[in-house]
Specification:
heterodimer, A: about 575 residues, mainly alpha, Cytochrome C Oxidase, Chain A, two-stranded antiparallel sheet, about 0% strand, globular, B: about 375 residues, alpha+beta, Helix Hairpins, Immunoglobulin-like, Cytochrome Bc1 Complex, Chain D, domain 2, about 15% strand, elongated
Chain lengths: ~575, ~375
């Protein structure tokens, strides 16, 4: 917090100074530096882009209802799966789990009034719409076609569209790096007095582990897409074998980022699950330290496994072994987490809210995705599975069954804190069951289709369908199931809008949860905490009194505090970001 | 749900590990064993094609590893999902609960945590040993190859080169052949972008990377016809980059190779260009050349994959063909027949493009007519 110019009313709380709350729609919701409002901005942008990228996925699924391709040309199909993957990874998932949920929740949970660098935070957000505009404008130039991985040399055939793709990813990478740095400093320096590392809520641990990866790994991605951009525009032969370059070089640089990227969006979901499970099982999280440290272990190991994406792609044979063993090793901390969550349910008193259903669904679908990951880590088995539909099934179980499930658990859990009203449980639980069965119906058959011989990124599968008569049935089955997920998202959007007006009033703590954000009013005031709370215990002891002091949020009770200094809203970061 | 914190919340009482814990555990164990039995002794051909009768020696090794992981992976999934569902039912909140009832306040159990760290570690250590064993067989376990051949990836076909055969075999027009029962080495590279050479029944795949020669070593075992697929995205018609592999007894393979050699020796003669029809050539051009060359033909610099072919015989900026030879009908026919590889790119030969003698004559007549 800034050492401001206001009058000090209390010698012990030099942090508390004067500034009025921002007024007017523009200052409050557009040019706000408030981490909560920036979280909303990320949320609306991310969900909007999710609906676009999701509709691309539906076009992809519709195309595959016939072996020869049902609705579009090969080129259009290739563009659709490329845009789906790119938008989902960089414009939807990372902004939603770190930008939206991380921004809104993390500072509240550590008892801070904002992130360490609000100005930087706002600039990070405003990069997102710019990057999304650049990415989608590439479709006006023919669109990128080479998949979200954009391997050269084939991606170099995309011309201007490929160069725009590189620009969009480079730009969003800057945003990720800045957010990582910002959250890192916030968690390290701005925790409330008494909140030691092992008293932090697990979502904060997850945000911290994610910030570490965001800050370090994204630079490698920038180098990769920067080099690819130069290859596009200036014909620099980084990746041209005929002129001394190497196409495999790009794959190394790309996966050095993109493997940690998977953890960048799964670890915040781990954090959400670790909050939701103890709250609704009404008992302490099982193995707090193991869950917290395994997040850190995963974020460090994540940097050592990238070449498992490249076993048959030109990796020296002896190099395959260390990457295989390290990838197996990452299964150990992940297993510890899953077993600890499972044990958290034991002996609990489980309340079935929408958030809890998503968290328990997550335990099943994410475990499945984790186990198929071990199959792919094994070099000999990967030589069969690499590049097939099995891989598509695996990572959708991890991403949709893991990261998106976690995100969908976070929405009903923190919606009352953000808006002051509860979401409709009836609509929420219906949308959970639609999503759960839609997800399994869409992605489970992909596993055997892949093993039988269906490669990924196929706009048609004529020969494969001839050899495997059930191929068309399962593809149609997946398409039908995928529309259950569409219905689920339609209900979610309806629920989000309907509940703003018609939801039940939430009060300060509708769930009986125990982290700091549930000690202040819903929605929280713009400065979050009138007085900085003091923490003297662990967050999940449901049989104990709350371990906080100084949490009384009644403004009028402490007239001596006056108003609280917050940064003045300014449009400047918009320019900086854009 | 409790909205406020009660000063002395009531703690739920659990007998033992919960009602029905051991019967549920027994049920999950039986389920896991049933799945294990299925993977080990049942027919899994429907997910792993050719599992019961291996098509190549390495296929059974890979399948063995797959079964090991399937057995333990399924068991882990059954226990996790089973306990989540069981705990969810057994420990659900009841309408009769007092509002401040909380769960058992345990934070951890070092013994339990030690076990669920050690057991997966041991399991993964065993898996590592098995994986390395199969990996070693794949890399070094094949004897001196009886046949070393080359596969070159092109957009969007595979080119197969056999020793002693002057012309290549192309996946668009002909299947690849391999002898059964002897070790083969397949060297794999690419002429343009990255492809992948995959025969699902053989299990192994390898990328065709420009500038890099990789290899696959195995002994084909079971004669038959199998599909070949490109499994790395390589452009618009990636999904049409398919081929077939015929594995046949050594004698049949040698006979096929001999016939190919003889055919190559008698072919390759000059085509009689005198009867070429420019009108027929125009139709053939649209059908067979337009994927890579502008149609209608454009000036040289308007390149698609290959250069524009307008004024091929009278372009002052390009007095010679890409082969460096003067643009005579015979030299144009030479490119059409034998293909061309140079800095500008690669053009497949007549076998790859499936051009008959008449097609060549018609195309030459058409191209010469474009003055």
């Amino acid at each position: 917090m800034h050492a401001g110019t206001g009058t000090t009313h209390d010698a012990h709380d030099v942090h508390d100074h004067i500034h009025p709350a921002p007024e007017g729609f523009i200052r409050k919701y557009v040019f706000s530096l408030d981490h909560k409002v920036i979280g909303f901005q990320y949320f609306f942008t991310g969900v909007f882009l999710l609906l676009i990228a999701g509709s691309f996925a539906e076009l992809v699924r519709l195309q595959l209802t016939k072996p020869e391709g049902a609705i579009m040309s090969h080129n259009a199909y290739n563009e659709m799966f490329t845009m789906h993957g790119t938008a989902m990874v960089w414009m939807v998932l990372i902004p939603l789990v770190t930008g939206a949920i991380g921004n809104f929740v993390m500072p509240l949970q550590i008892g801070a009034r904002d992130v360490a660098f609000p100005w930087l935070n706002m600039a990070s957000f405003w990069i997102l719409p710019v990057a999304a505009l650049i990415l989608f404008s590439s479709m006006l130039f023919g669109g990128p076609h080479a998949g979200w991985t954009e391997y050269p040399p084939i991606s170099l055939a995309d011309g201007t569209a490929g160069a725009l793709w590189c620009m969009a990813i480079f730009v969003i990478g800057i945003s990720s790096t800045m957010t990582g740095l910002n959250f890192m400093v916030t968690v390290m320096k701005m925790r409330a007095p008494g909140m030691t590392w092992t008293r932090m809520p697990l979502f904060v641990w997850a945000t911290f582990a994610t910030a570490l990866m965001n800050m370090i790994a994204t630079v490698a991605l920038s180098a990769a897409v920067g080099a690819l951009f130069l290859a596009h525009v200036f014909n620099v032969p980084f990746f041209d074998a005929a002129r001394g370059g190497s196409p495999v070089l790009f794959e190394h640089m790309f996966w050095f980022y993109s493997h940690p990227a998977v953890y960048i969006f799964i670890i915040p979901a781990f954090g959400v699950i670790s909050e939701v499970l103890p709250t609704f099982a009404r008992k302490p999280i099982f193995g707090y330290k193991m869950i917290a440290f395994s997040s850190m272990a995963i974020s460090i190991l994540a940097f050592t496994v990238w070449a498992h994406h490249m076993f048959p792609s030109g990796l020296a044979p002896w190099l395959q072994l260390p990457f295989m063993i390290l990838t197996y090793a990452i299964g150990i901390p992940t297993g510890i987490k899953v077993f600890s969550w499972m044990a958290t349910l034991w002996g609990g008193r489980i309340h079935y809210t929408t958030a809890m259903l998503y968290a328990m669904g997550f335990l099943i679908t994410f475990t499945f995705g984790g186990i198929t990951g071990i199959f792919l880590a094994s070099v000999p088995v990967d030589l069969h599975m690499h590049g097939t539909y099995f891989v598509v099934g695996h990572f959708h179980y991890v991403v949709a069954g893991g990261a998106v499930m976690g995100f969908l658990a976070a929405i009903p859990y923190w919606y009352p804190k953000a808006t002051g009203r509860l979401m409709s449980e009836r609509i929420g639980q219906l949308s959970f069951w639609l999503f759960f069965w839609g997800l399994n119906g869409t992605f489970l058959p992909m596993h055997w289709l892949g093993l039988e011989g269906m490669p990924r990124r196929y706009a048609s599968y004529i020969d494969f369908a001839k050899a495997n008569p059930d191929a068309q049935f399962w593809n149609q089955f997946e398409t039908v199931a995928s529309f259950l997920m569409v219905a689920s998202f339609a209900l979610l959007v309806f629920n989000l809008l309907w509940s703003i007006k018609h939801g039940k009033i939430a009060g300060i703590n509708p769930w009986g949860a125990r982290t700091l954000e549930w000690t202040i009013s819903s929605p929280p005031p713009y400065y979050n905490f009138k007085k900085l709370p003091h923490v003297y215990g662990r967050p999940y002891d449901f049989d104990q009194p709350l371990p906080y002091a100084n949490t009384d949020n009644e403004l009028d009770q402490y007239p001596e505090y006056g108003k609280v200094l917050m940064p003045i809203p300014t449009p400047a970061p918009v320019g900086a970001g854009a | 749900m409790a909205q406020t914190q009660s000063p002395n919340p009531k703690v739920v009482r659990v007998k033992g590990l919960g009602r029905g814990f051991w019967p549920v555990t027994a049920l999950l164990t039986v389920l896991s064993l049933a799945c294990a039995w299925y993977f080990l002794f049942g027919s899994i051909d429907w997910i792993m094609p050719g599992a019961s009768q291996p098509v190549a020696d390495r296929a059974s090794d890979v399948d063995g590893l797959f079964k090991f992981m399937a057995v333990f992976g399924t068991a882990i999934l059954i226990y996790v999902a089973g306990y989540v569902i069981y705990f969810g039912i057994e420990f659900r909140a009841r309408p009769t609960d007092p509002p401040d009832l909380v769960g058992v306040p345990i934070h951890d159990s070092p013994k339990l945590e030690l076990w669920w760290t050690i057991l997966p570690t041991l399991l993964l250590a065993a898996l590592t040993a098995l994986s390395i064993n199969v990996w070693y067989k794949i890399q070094f376990g094949v004897g001196a190859p009886a046949l070393t051949m080359e596969v070159v990836g092109h957009q969007f076909y595979f080119e197969y080169r056999y020793p002693g055969l002057k012309t290549s075999v192309f996946s668009k027009t002909e299947p690849m052949h391999l002898p059964a029962g002897v070790p083969v080495r397949i060297l794999i590279t690419s002429a343009d972008v990255i492809h992948q050479f995959w025969v699902p029944e053989i299990r192994l795949k390898q990328a065709a990377v420009p500038g890099l020669v990789q290899n696959l070593n195995y002994t084909p075992l079971r004669p038959g016809t199998y599909d070949i697929a490109c499994s790395e995205y390589c452009g618009s018609d990636h999904s049409l980059m398919q081929g077939q592999l015929i594995i046949e007894p050594v004698a049949a393979f040698n006979k096929w190779l001999d016939n190919k050699e003889k055919a190559a020796a008698t072919a390759g003669g000059t085509v009689n260009l005198a009867n070429g029809s420019a009108a027929a050539g125009k139709a053939t051009y649209s059908q067979k050349c337009a994927a890579c060359h502008s149609d209608p033909p454009a000036p040289f610099d308007q390149k698609l994959v290959g250069p524009g072919l307008l004024h091929i015989t009278d372009d002052p900026a390009h007095p010679a063909l890409v082969t460096g030879k003067p643009p005579t009908p015979a030299n144009i026919a030479d490119i059409l027949q034998n293909g061309f590889t140079g800095p500008i790119g690669t053009m497949p030969n007549r076998q790859a493009n499936a051009l008959s003698d008449k097609d060549v004559a018609d195309l030459v007549a058409y191209l010469v007519s474009l003055k």
